[in-house]
Write a structure and sequence with these properties.
The structure is a homodimer.
Chain A lengths: L3 H11 L6 H13 L1 H18 L1 E2 L6 E2 L5 H4 L7 E5 L2 H10 L5 E4 L17 H8 L6 E4 L5 H13 L6 E4 L15 H9 L5
Parallel strand pairs in A: 3-4, 3-5, 5-6
Antiparallel strand pairs in A: 1-2
Helix pairs in contact in A: 1-2, 2-3
Chain lengths: 197, 197
């Protein structure tokens, strides 16, 4: 139907997370119909990112400078280190504007199923950073899944010899969440960890 | 949080049809984490399409050659001309492999709301093509919406002086469709147009 080039682009689009064949087709057509206003800016933004974005050699964040903007920010508390599985978790935490410290991206979580072992995660680099005198607390901001919590336990174990406080995110009722729809585990956790009002 | 380049790319991604801020973030991160296997092929496919895909000067299809592969195919019936609103409709019809003729892309449908009038559509070019001796039938494959049917009536009117048969797509129960869930209009149409089994 359309040329091989268009087909190839649609297939590549369809492999992106969250897109399927139908939305890929719509996206490609949207770009093709708006060359100057959509396709060209898209292409230049993509090229920019390809050429300029690198992994931060300190924390593993993605940025155009190395160390990244978070690591290089002198207003950040050097005593607080937040461990996340992936860059998207780092971005999610940054969007809250609630964390004044720095990050460490593990690059995934331990997973027997996916064959991800300790040597695939940047744990050694974390231990090295946590051993620095200025680090007082390491926050394990890992998902409340089996793999996430296994990883948290493993990382906590590896940090045992560093003289840092180790903490995890609080569990409980999500803001805006209805009790009715909450799973039993979360609800009982929220009950146990109840706080004076 | 991330660099300005990444933010810009995410915003551009989020403007594509079918994507939002969240899926844009996931797509960008997916590409950034897989430079060689995802970002580079994406970029080269996009550049190829930008540089090589043009509108067909005959029918309005998008392809790397002009006339497009459909117009240039000598096995296509020159007597059948299928009028579609947009390139995605042409692609949808081509995927069925059920149409042996050629196409004409109007470039939209008449719409008072969107300010799209007859002069915005390639109707004059269609009339010129339909006036050619070899064209025997023009099929109006336009959406069964108010705007689509208004456009079909307008196009049929403009084709009055050409000696061509004018037809439209059949209405009825979609294949796999349950009668229960069908709207009254479609159902009564399907009843009126009933066929001997």
């Amino acid at each position: 139907m359309a040329g091989a080039e268009i087909d190839r682009l649609m297939q590549i689009f369809a492999r992106l997370p969250g897109l399927g064949p139908r939305s890929a087709r719509r996206a490609v057509l949207h770009l093709l119909k708006r060359r100057e206003t959509a396709l060209d800016p898209f292409l230049s933004a993509l090229t920019d990112v390809r050429d300029r974005v690198r992994s931060c050699s300190v924390c593993g964040n993605l940025d155009t400078c190395d160390p990244c903007a978070v690591c290089a920010d002198p207003r950040r508390d050097p005593g607080l280190l937040c461990v996340v599985a992936d860059v998207d978790d780092l971005w999610a935490l940054e969007r809250t504007r609630a964390f004044p410290g720095r990050y460490h991206v593990l690059g995934g979580v331990l997973s027997a199923l996916d064959g991800i072992g300790p040597e695939d995660l940047s744990v050694a680099a974390l231990v090295k950073r946590a051993a620095a005198q200025e680090v007082a607390e390491v926050i394990l901001a890992l998902s409340a899944t089996v793999d996430g919590q296994t990883t948290a336990h493993y990382v906590a174990d590896r940090l045992r010899d560093c003289s840092v406080r180790i903490s995890g995110l609080a569990h409980g009722v999500p803001i805006g969440g209805e009790l009715d729809y909450l799973d039993d585990g979360t609800l009982s956790q929220a009950l146990r960890a109840r706080r004076p009002v």
